[in-house]
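Review form for a predicted model. The reviewer records the input and the model, then writes brief findings.
Reviewer: anonymous (R2)
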Amino acid sequence: MAAVEWGPDNINVNVICPLVMSEELAKWKTENEALYNKTIGEIPMIRFGDAEADIGAVCLFLASDAASYLTGECLTLQGGLGLRP
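Model under review:
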């Protein structure tokens, strides 16, 4: 694992798995409105993420000194979709 190999060199390795609105998702939304509405209703935040505002902010955090001890993590940014009631 890269985080184990590069950790001694103070290199952080993390992964972001985003659920973000994209051009293709917007196209799918118009072509599959009923399925889109069902999908969006299952996301606790009731929306897909914004690449710049939501995902970009996390990227900035990961690049900052505040995340200097965070490594080997997979950050799933999906508005709570993975939560099970």
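Findings: The chain is about 40% helix and 10% strand.
Further findings: The chain has a mean pLDDT of 95.
Recommendation: see findings above.
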